[in-house]
Predict the structure.
Amino acid sequence: MSKKGILIIGAGGVSRVATVKCAMNIDTFEKITLASRTVSKCESIAADILKNQGVQIDVASVDADSVDELVKLIEKVNPKLVLNVALPYQDLTIMDACTKCKVDYVDTANYEHPDEAKFEYKLQWARDNQFKDAGIMALLGSGFDPGVTGVFCAYAQQNLFDEIHTIDIMDCNAGDHGYKFATNFNPEINLREVSANGRYWENGQWIETTPLEIRVDHDYPEVGVKPSYLLYHEELESLVKNIKGLKRIRFFMTFGDAYIQHMNCLQNVGMLGIE
């Protein structure tokens, strides 16, 4: 039986957007299967897509922490591609299942250890030969940031400049959902990212800052001035290896005062041992 379609693993907010986008391009993807530990979440997304787009997608249950379960599902679905939009804790198991089944892999965020608030590409990059030996591809960090940001930088290097000396990636969310506190993606991952020490690369070395230590008030086109804070973000790790002439690269993200106040309150509650 020939490989057909895409298997999407994960059923959170990012998955909903990705699955809808795939359904909009069903002629390209041919067949869509959406899988998660909680199959009811997949069914909800599938029902919305059928109602709004008239596209039927399959759903399945899988524990993405288990390579064996993932292998069984991939063998059953037999997709051309696995799109991982589950938790970053599960990147390695999904990658290992893909190499066992010889199926191409794409994710949107790099691996994080569940017991340590630190993310880096080391353990994923270490699987390079594993994927080469299987004769398949792994495309890492193919979201917006990382993802689109890397494409923009590569385009600038290839088409606009002989050398690029400094890069500031400015991530601004202009939306307002009316809540005093809410995250744009998985709350645990978001809070880990924002509360961790910042890092940026300058003159060949990584420089670490305390959380939210560096703030700039940047004037964004069509949005206006927003407080933007320096964070560490995974695309910095790959861009320092691939942008010629680079002397400094930083990443900033916007947060309102209410978000930071609520985050500090949550941290204080945690420090007091209150659940």
Remarks:
- The chain is about 40% helix and 20% strand.
